Amino acid sequence: MKWNTKIKRFTALLLCLALAVLCVGPITASADDGAQKTVRVGWFDSAFHTIDQFGRRSGYAYEYQQKIAAYSGWNYEYVTGSWPELYQMLADGELDLLSDVSYTPERSELMLFSALPMPQIEWSERNLSYCLCAFPLVGAVIGLALWLWWLLGEALGLGTLLYAAGLTLIPVLLSGGIHLDGFCDTGDALSSHAPAEK
Fold first, then answer.
1. d(CA 162, CA 14)
2. DSSP H or E run through 78
3. CA neighbours within 13 Å on the CB side: how many for 173?
């Protein structure tokens, strides 16, 4: 067997392993130790968490908290108030979780902060319409990258497995995997072992 063929097979194996970790990781990452902890969460009106006319909670912070609950098995008890009131409750230990708390050195001595900061975008109907206009452009960029991968594969004579792994991983790498969100949400739901109603 030629040295070049061995390198191609080894690279294909590494890409397949990376793909397997990306696909299986979200499915097996749920925590199920049988005990459910109740976490007190501060809730205030903002762009990151809202309640619609039917009483349903939504928003970036709410969705983020639900992802945490899917992995940790936590139940949330929401405490409503103004942001200053809730921040004081957090500082006093009466709350466990509060979103939209900006990092300062003084605050970091009292509480833990996420390594990934919350975005500071004010979403509106107008902003969302601009965002939707960019989706075809994003698709075109990903399509161009896939076309370039095809050209490279043809030029180098890549094997089918390596070629397919590249076609699978390129959109994930370029979009940060955002297009796999539905797949990951389904994996979270299936592996949470929670009742279907939840």
1. 9
2. strand 75-80
3. 12
Beta-bridge partners for 40: 77
CB-based contacts of 148, cutoff 8 Å, min separation 6:
none
CB 36 within 8 A of CB 76: no
Which residue is listed with tokens 């080894």? 10
Give the whole-angstrom CA distance, residue 105 versus residue 100.
16
CA quadruple 65, 115, 101, 97: dihedral positive or negative?
Answer: positive
- Rounded to two decimals, what is the model's pTM? 0.42
Torsion angle (degrees, nearest 10) of CA 90, 95, 101, 103: 60
Q: Is 35 helix (H, G, I), strand (E, B) or coil?
A: coil
| Token reading at 17 | 């392993």
Long-range contacts of 173-179 (CB under 8 A, 24+ apart): 174/141, 174/142, 174/145, 175/138, 175/142, 177/22
Instruction: Yes or no: say if 174 and 137 are a contact pair by the CB < 8 Å rule.
Output: no
pLDDT tens over the chain, length 198 residues: 566 666 777 776 677 667 666 665 544 444 444 567 889 998 888 777 788 888 888 887 888 888 888 878 889 999 999 888 988 898 888 998 888 777 788 887 877 776 655 555 666 777 767 777 777 888 889 899 999 999 998 888 888 888 888 888 888 888 766 666 666 777 777 776 666 666
Q: Which of 169-185 are b and which e, b meaning 16 or more Cβ less than 10 Å from the residue's Cβ?
A: bebbebeeeeebeeebe
